[in-house]
Write a structure and sequence with these properties.
This protein is mainly α. The two termini are about 25 Å apart. It has four helices and no strands. It is globular, with a radius of gyration of 13 Å. The protein has one domain.
Length: about 80
């Protein structure tokens, strides 16, 4: 990935942890209990990366298969964006 500012690396690591925390909690049927600010940070990190669709084409994330409901929560928006 090359050089990047520490703040961007931190956002990437937090975002990855937020998504995988959701994955694990969902797998065992538990509430992920994720802080809304962390979810919003992760969404803000991933949204520009996903905007052009290349992450879906390259298979990094599954492309969302269904439209997002109008009343989606920030967590719903995040997991939808990253193909969960």
């Amino acid at each position: 990935m090359g050089e990047m500012p520490g703040s961007l690396l931190l956002a990437q690591l937090i975002s990855d942890t937020v998504v995988h925390s959701w994955d694990l909690a969902t797998a065992i049927g538990a509430d992920p209990g994720l802080d809304d600010r962390l979810v919003e940070l992760a969404y803000a990190f991933y949204a520009p990366i996903c905007a052009d669709g290349s992450v879906y084409a390259k298979g990094y994330f599954a492309a969302p298969s269904q439209p997002l409901p109008a009343d989606a929560t920030p967590l719903d928006r995040l997991v939808h964006l990253v193909g969960r």
